[in-house]
Structure to design on (957 residues):
């Protein structure tokens, strides 16, 4: 897919004032979204942006496409209905960790399972921002918030783990501060057929400031984040001398250093997002500190028919085989009798 | 009205009830009898009555499955009250249906099953066939189980499979009682079992055996003849309410040129609509079995935004789950139809039983000022018409519409004259014009208050809708106080204006006088029969019936009708939800009530008693 209609990001700026807090990570995501939409390979009129409720879900107002800002948690089924009804639409969903993993959790896993052709941008700030600071399903265990004054006593969901576990065909991750990686993964999502889940680890300045700073601090960033790329060895670190190896004895990933203990570049795992088997990709998605760097980039991107395509195929098959060409045929089918 | 013809009695209408353990094949026996009744040319209505469990404990009253057919040489509009003929395949089915058999009626039982603990499990202390408890009835104690096995003896069928034909044996007996021709049913076996020819022979032999048995033991028994019903010229079929609902939407889609989208989650008793439309990919239907009720309706809202004729189908508990999304459809002013096939509530309630207790929820069950048109079908056959009209109202007025049916009419069947799509009214869809420089999402027709339908893909009309209150005309998010009230009023007026698209309310019977019977939706058959009965019994009284199909808005002439009667009695299968609604709409009228919340349709006799009591007051 490419920018066949010669659109620019300005084509997607709406006349609405953006009402997110100054410094919020959402601004960066919006900029990346406006930048990628020209690449969707569709006319402006054939793009639909849908959202639920939450800060993330205000995004459709700020993008000049057809858009729906709906009710809490339901963006995915709304988007699914629109996509099924008109498969020609490029359908995008902006959602948050509360919207898609708490109230909308059921829709989230089923959308992925069905491989509905929808690009989902999950703004993950690990907090409920719009309701002013309650813990979310991605808040870490023990997190103190307004509704967990003694710390949460529940483990968080890892969106990547959940998405891949649910049979998702595409998962990519970025931090809101990494514009080039956001551009890269949104473009890959735009080109993917099926549910493309893009997790953006986004900073809420007001209610969860610094939630991702362990990874994003400038000083240590290079050692705590790994940018995974198709066909490339999984290297990271300031010197790019650290890497991820699959330990053949434990069948687990481990961090190794080139040149140490006889480790060479040949020992380093080469990333393959297109591999159908989800085992390794799941392990990569699960990597987190302090033992591992967190992976950003396209982690999984496999090819599989999407739901709306399969439905169209069934309609074609059924139409070719049926004896019913119109409703009158149906009404007159089966057991009928004539009265003279 | 009966007249003797030797031991053959000619009846104007008859009720036959097939009852047995769930798994005894009573629904099939009833369906085959219905097919045969259609061929004979009588009018009929049927109603299946089955337990919520697929296979409830064997031989218990809880596990009794029934199928009732009311047929006649006159127009039949309900599945009837008490049975003239009961087929009871075990003691439990006799026990649970006995009270619904007319005194002097015929009871066919499988005498083989009236042994051992089947009797006590049914709740009898002693064998009812062996005492005088059935003296008032004509009992045919047929050894159905043993005779069914006997009929298949030469065919090497094992006992378990042989017993599966007991229903067919009973059917044979009933065929004899009504002078029916066996041939069409045998033809049905030949067609159905073309790939398993051994079943053709077993079923055929058992059917004939049942018929012959009845002939031989009933030399002196009464048999019945029901004449043909003189239907007007045309082609006929019978149809369940759920199928008629599904086909009504198909017709609406074809006529309007819209694509039909359904987003639903299986729920009794609405599932059959989804089953039918999932099978209609051949007509281009996009039916989607969603992960839950909320996904069902919200996907429909998405599909409606994308330009489809979108529906969602459910029953009471599902309607509860859809409440918030209905509000979204009101706010985004998108056309969807929500079908609620009502069942006994609250909560899970009585999934397989009928009730009209979702009316208040349909009218009011949402947050905010959130008006939705509500219409109700009243017969299995007219579910077609009202599904069509619900679609037309939704699309022409850009609003969600709730269509209420109920378990009784959804699962019941009725003979209908087959409609032609060409004869159905056209759709007038308020599409926006691509590249219209004046387009705005909340600009309305000044008379109808209907906004335009701008669909993704249309050039020059990009806009955003959503659940947040919007500024009038522009659609920008707005919390301005005056704007909010204006928008609430606009949405209200839009729904009120629909009164101009629906006809006047009809009154059956006397047009003014002593008492008006008021009903709505699926109780039409029983109320209509009760009207005929009370007028017969009280010839000096002037009594009419107003059965409402349009609930919100109510037809324009509603108050004019009420004004013409001294007494108004609202009869409904709830504690008075329609009566209370009418009280909010029409001040100064006294509405009496007759209510029933038993999961069962009205009986004519109880209604007539209620009318008499009221008129004596």
């Amino acid at each position: 897919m490419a920018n066949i209609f010669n659109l620019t990001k300005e084509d997607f700026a709406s006349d609405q004032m953006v009402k997110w807090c100054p410094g919020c990570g959402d601004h960066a995501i919006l900029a990346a979204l406006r930048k990628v939409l020209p690449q969707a390979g569709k006319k402006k009129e054939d793009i639909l942006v849908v959202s639920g409720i939450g800060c993330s879900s205000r995004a459709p107002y700020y993008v000049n496409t057809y858009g729906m800002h709906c009710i809490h948690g339901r963006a995915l089924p709304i988007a699914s209905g629109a996509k099924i009804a008109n498969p020609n639409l490029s359908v995008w969903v902006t959602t948050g960790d509360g919207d898609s993993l708490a109230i909308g959790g059921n829709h989230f896993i089923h959308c992925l399972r069905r491989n509905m052709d929808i690009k989902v941008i999950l703004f993950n700030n690990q907090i409920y921002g719009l309701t002013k600071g309650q813990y979310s399903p991605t808040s870490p265990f023990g997190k103190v918030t307004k509704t967990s004054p003694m710390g949460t006593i529940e483990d968080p969901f890892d969106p990547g783990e959940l998405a891949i576990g649910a049979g998702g065909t595409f998962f990519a991750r970025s931090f809101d501060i990494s514009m080039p990686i956001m551009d890269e993964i949104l473009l890959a999502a735009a080109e993917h057929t099926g549910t493309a889940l893009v997790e953006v680890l986004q900073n809420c300045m007001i209610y969860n400031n610094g939630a991702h700073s362990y990874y994003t601090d400038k000083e240590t960033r290079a050692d705590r984040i790994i940018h995974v790329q198709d066909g490339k060895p999984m290297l990271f670190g300031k010197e790019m001398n650290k890497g991820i190896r699959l330990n053949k004895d434990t069948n687990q990933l481990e961090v190794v250093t080139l040149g140490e203990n006889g480790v060479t570049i040949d020992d380093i795992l080469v990333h393959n997002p297109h591999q159908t088997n989800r085992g390794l990709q799941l392990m990569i998605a699960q990597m987190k500190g302090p033992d591992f760097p967190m992976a950003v980039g396209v982690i999984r991107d496999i090819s599989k028919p999407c739901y709306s395509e399969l439905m169209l195929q069934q309609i074609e098959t059924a139409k070719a085989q049926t004896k019913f060409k119109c409703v009158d045929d149906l009404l007159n089918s089966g057991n009928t009798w004539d009265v003279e | 009205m009966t007249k003797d013809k030797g031991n053959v009695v000619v009846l104007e209408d008859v009720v036959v009830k097939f009852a047995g353990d769930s798994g005894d094949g009573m629904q099939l026996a009833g369906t085959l009898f219905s097919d045969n009744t259609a061929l004979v040319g009588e009018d009929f209505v049927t109603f299946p009555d089955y337990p919520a469990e697929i296979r409830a404990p064997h031989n218990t009253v809880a596990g009794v499955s029934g199928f009732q057919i009311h047929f006649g040489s006159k127009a039949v509009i309900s599945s009837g009250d008490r049975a003239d003929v009961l087929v009871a395949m075990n003691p439990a089915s006799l026990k649970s249906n006995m009270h619904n058999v007319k005194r002097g009626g015929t009871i066919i039982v499988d005498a083989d099953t009236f042994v051992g603990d089947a009797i006590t499990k049914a709740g009898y202390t002693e064998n009812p066939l062996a005492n005088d408890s059935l003296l008032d009835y004509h009992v045919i104690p047929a050894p159905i189980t043993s005779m069914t096995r006997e009929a298949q003896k030469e065919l090497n069928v094992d006992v378990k499979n042989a017993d599966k034909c007991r229903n067919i044996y009973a059917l044979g007996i009933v065929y004899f009682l009504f002078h029916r021709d066996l041939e069409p049913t045998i033809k049905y076996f030949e067609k159905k079992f073309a790939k398993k020819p051994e079943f053709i022979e077993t079923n055929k032999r058992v059917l004939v055996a049942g018929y012959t048995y009845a002939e031989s033991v009933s030399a002196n028994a009464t048999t019945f003849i029901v004449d043909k019903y003189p239907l007007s010229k045309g082609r006929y079929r019978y149809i369940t309410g759920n199928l008629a609902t599904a086909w009504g939407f198909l017709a609406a889609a074809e006529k309007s040129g819209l694509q039909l989208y359904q987003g639903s989650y299986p729920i009794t008793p609405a599932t059959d609509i989804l089953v039918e439309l999932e099978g209609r990919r051949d007509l281009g239907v996009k039916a989607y079995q969603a992960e839950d009720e909320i996904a069902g309706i919200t996907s429909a809202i998405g599909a409606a935004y994308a330009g489809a004729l979108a529906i969602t189908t459910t029953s009471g508990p599902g309607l509860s789950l859809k409440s918030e999304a209905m509000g979204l459809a009101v706010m985004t002013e998108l056309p969807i139809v929500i079908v609620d096939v009502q069942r006994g509530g609250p909560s899970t309630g009585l999934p397989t039983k009928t009730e009209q207790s979702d009316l208040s929820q349909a009218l009011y069950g949402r947050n905010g000022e959130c008006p939705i048109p509500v219409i109700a079908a009243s017969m299995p056959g007219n579910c077609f018409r009202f599904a069509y009209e619900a679609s037309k109202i939704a699309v022409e007025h850009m609003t969600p519409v709730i269509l209420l049916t109920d378990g009784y009419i959804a699962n019941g069947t009725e003979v209908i004259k087959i409609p032609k799509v060409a004869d159905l009214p056209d759709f007038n869809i308020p599409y926006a014009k691509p590249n219209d420089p004046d387009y705005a999402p909340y600009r309305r027709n000044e008379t109808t208050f209907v906004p335009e339908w701008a669909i993704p893909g249309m050039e020059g009309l990009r806009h955003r809708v959503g659940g947040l209150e919007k500024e009038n005309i522009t659609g920008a998010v707005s919390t301005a106080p005056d704007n909010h009230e204006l928008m609430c009023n606009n949405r209200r007026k839009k729904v009120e204006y629909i009164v101009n698209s629906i006809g006047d309310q009809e009154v059956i019977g006397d047009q003014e006088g002593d008492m008006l019977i008021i009903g709505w939706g699926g109780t039409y058959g029983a109320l209509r029969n009760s009207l005929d009965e009370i007028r017969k019994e009280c010839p000096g009284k002037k009594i009419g019936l107003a059965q409402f199909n349009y609930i919100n808005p109510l037809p324009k002439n509603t108050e004019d009708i009420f004004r013409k009667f001294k007494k108004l009695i609202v009869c409904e299968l709830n504690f008075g939800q329609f009566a209370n609604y009418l009280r909010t709409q029409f001040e100064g009228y006294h509405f009496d009530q007759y209510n029933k919340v038993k999961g069962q349709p009205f009986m004519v006799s109880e209604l007539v008693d209620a009318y008499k009591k009221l008129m004596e007051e």
Chain B has three domains: 2-226, 238-423, 508-616. Chain B touches chain A through 69 residues (CB under 8 Å). Confidence is low (pLDDT under 50) at residues 1-6 of chain B. Residues 508-616 of chain B form a domain with the Rossmann fold fold (CATH 3.40.50.920).
